[in-house]
Amino acid sequence: MINLEKLYQHKLAFGFFSRLLSYPEKGIFHPAVLEESFDSSHPAYPYIQSFLEQVKGYSMDELEEHYTRTFDFEKHSTLYMTYFKYEDGKERGQMLAKLKVLYEMYGLEMPAEELSDYLPLMCEFLYAAEWRGDARSPQSFSILFAVLEDGTWHLLQSLEKNNNPFFHLVKGLRETLKTCVIQGEATNQHA
């Protein structure tokens, strides 16, 4: 079960993850961006510091190239969270439709060019959506979390194997999500 109030407290963090997991923009990797979104007690803070430390020597061109090589050309490190489980099967289409309906239920308009399981979009939804007081939220967010948990676990394995700096960013996201799971529930398959 998801602690929706705790999830709400991490809205700024999800906005941060959405921006950093999107195609790199100038200035987004500056340490000041971290300070605006997290304090040092946040569970993702040390992972994000590690990520920023590893990429600080990259030029913008090198960062863009590394991002593209990692997420666009390596199928084991895709940012599409249902791909790992379903690849291009019928079940994936059904899950994409469920996620799209979820976003629309909470007022997020899907960009026409994007699939609903795109990790930066999922983080953007968690940042922008208003779910408090909505009776549909517990069930709806359980589905979202299942997709995030499974997809980010596979992504994390691939990034770790390749010693990729984005490993730390995804690990920080997973640690943030973990704080929103009510302890004692058997909702996570992966550590």
Question: How would you describe what is shown here?
Answer:
The protein is mainly alpha-helical and about 190 residues long. It has one domain (about 5-180). The protein is about 60% helix and about 0% strand. It is built from ten helices and no strands. It has helices at about 5-10, 10-20, 30-35, 45-55, 60-70, 85, 90-105, 120-130, 135-160, 165-180. Helix 2 runs antiparallel to helix 10, helix 4 (about 45-55) packs antiparallel against helix 10 and helix 9 (about 135-160) packs antiparallel against helix 10. The longest helix has 25 residues, at about 135-160. It is globular, with a radius of gyration of 16 Å. Residues about 185-190 have low confidence and may be disordered. GO terms for molecular function: metallochaperone activity; unfolded protein binding. Keywords: Nitrate assimilation. Pfam families: Nitrate_red_del.
Shape by Cα distribution: globular
Percent range of helical residues: 55-70%
Unreliable stretches: 185-189
Q: Helix count, per DSSP?
A: 10
Give me the count of strands: 0
How many strands, what sense, and barrel or not for the largest sheet? none
Strand content: under 5%
User: Distance between the terminal alpha carbons, to the nearest Å?
Assistant: 16 Å
Rg of Cα set: 16 Å
- Class based on secondary structure composition and strand pairing: mainly alpha
- The total number of structural domains is 1
Secondary-structure element order, N to C = HHHHHHHHHH
Oligomer: single chain
Mean pLDDT: 90
Organism: Lederbergia galactosidilytica
Keywords: Nitrate assimilation
Protein name: Nitrate reductase
GO biological process, one term: nitrate assimilation
